[in-house]
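This section describes the prediction task in plain terms. A model, or a person checking by hand, is given the sequence of a single protein chain and must write out its three-dimensional structure as a string of tokens. No templates, partner chains or ligands are provided. The sample shown here is typical of the held-out split.
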Amino acid sequence: PENVDTEIKFIVSDFVKYLDDVDEKTSMLSTTVEESFGDLINHELSPEEYFITAGITQQQVNSLIIELTLSGEPQEWTASYKTYVGALKKMNEQITETVVVANLMKDDNLVPIDELVSKIYELRAELQDLVIESNNLRP
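The expected answer:
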């Protein structure tokens, strides 16, 4: 049928708990990526193995972005939720940069990765700043 409503809606009634849950999931995902990236840098994890971890983590981050975007938060929560979405997008940027490093390592590229690693840490700091800002914007 042509008139089928295919719009996805997430029903959220406790906006504090919901954002706390998203924050907890984000923290776990961030820790997973950081530990795996450390293992990659220390040659304890192959680039191919890291690609799997990074891909799955980005899918989960994208799901959180979609959930927050479609949560239908009341106006007083909009600034906090949008800022948190920004934090999640920073996390995806961070993961993308780690994949660049993994690709360079896979290809045994002699390009120094220090500058890229520095950028990854900057993105992580920006992510943490946005999470703090989101918490400060809560009503």
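For orientation: Residues 75-106 form the longest helix (32 residues).
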